[in-house]
Amino acid sequence: MDKLVLTGGARLDGTVVTSGSKNGTLAIMAGALLGKGETILKNVPSIGDCRTMMDMLRALGVKCEEEGNGVVRIDATEISATEAPYELVKRMRASFCVLGPVLARKGYAKVAMPGGCDIGARPIDFHVKGIQTLGAYVNIDHGFVEAECEQLKGAQVYLNFPSAGATQHIMSSACLAEGVTTIHNAAAEPEVTQLAEFLTKMGARIEGAGTSTVRVEGVGELHGVEFDMPPDRMEAGTFAVAAVVTMGDVRIERIRPDDVEPFALKLRESGAIIEMTENTMRVRANSRPMATDIMTMPHPGFPTDLQQPFAAMLAIADGTSVITENVYERRFRYVNELTRMGADIKQDGRTAVINGVPKLTGAQTTASDLRAGAALVCAALAAEGQSEISGIEHIERGYEKMVDKLKSIGAQVGVVPDEQEKEAVCV
Ligand code: UD1
Fold first, then answer.
1. Is 238 within 8 Å of 374 (Cβ atoms)?
2. What is the mean pLDDT of residues 147-157?
3. Ligand 1 mean position to 185 CA, how many Å?
4. Ligand 1: which residue has its CA nearest to atom 12?
5. Is 367 helix (H, G, I), strand (E, B) or coil?
6. What domains sit in the chain, N to C, each tagged with a CATH number?
7. Pocket of ligand 1 contains residue 124 by CB under 6 Å
């Protein structure tokens, strides 16, 4: 596997444009299975996870073509297969969310149990309970979830935790159910609202998306539409941190202010200067960041996906910060790697105490998952000397052209083939 080589210390200065939202696009692609006729998605990010979802749609016998320039055409008029293969679901958890739409369209679906980033226990019980509440008979056996139901029926669904994925999955499935479904304690993540906007355009009747109660009135059929993928708030947050740790000045174009507010407020607390317009955010820092505490929560709380890049910033902050991870307990797997770069972090369970140090030093590190990769990139940008980051396939899953974008604003970064692997190939 290739490695990312980054020499820290360069001040980032310039403009980056965010790609389409990874999490929003994945949910929307699964939602496209509900419609007959062609759906044209624009601004689809060119990342590994979206390619996996496209492979999944094709595996279900749906027409799915990438046109280039972020345009993807999906025609789910025919869904000729009802089984989602393990090979694809193990690569990415979000692909599990084809279960409900295929079931709603075909009366039967069989999907392998999910995989994805290893960031802690990622059960599917809310998804399964939701589908069952809508009237499906569900059988879990030999690593597969099998669901059967001639016609889903609207129902009251309560989530024990406001899960983004379960809210999206149940909301989508309910669109073709008979009657009204209400999801209580629903997730209010922007990606839920984005999916609701998409489904509504397809003909669905949804109210309350973005609040804790989502109401879906089932309709007989949905149709294909054209839809622009919304901006990726996690990418915006990652570049914002990159600007702060290099004491830079970066304009991030294509953002939604409400979506980025939770982390923008935290950046301000740490001393960054943030200027926001309707669709841009300028992030500047003139001095070392100040320590600040972070507690991850469902939206509009601080997003768990940005906990890791923010930890890189807090590692060089003036003072002591406490991070409490309330969503995914294993999202601390970057701690040892940052420690190797000179960070002073003590982690126990869901809490990490970070004593900021004046500087980090470049080191060889490995990304264990997508956002851990983002944290290591941010740390390497701030560090003295050269860092090597292995495991960049994780970064490629979720960040479009990250290296090119970083280079365009002044980072000294490149991708090199892994020497060991080269040797192994030579032998
Ligand atoms: C999505 C995002 C991920 C983000 C997360 C939280 C995608 C592709 N991924 O993941 O980047 O970090 O939301 O904002 O959109 N849970 C259960 N049972 C379930 C489902 C979830 O117990 O059936 C728990 C999880 O273990 C976790 C919490 O609920 O502790 C939140 O998970 P959830 O919001 O579902 O995350 P994902 O949708 O998988």
1. yes
2. 97
3. 14
4. 305
5. coil
6. 3-19+231-424 (3.65.10.10), 22-228 (3.65.10.10)
7. yes
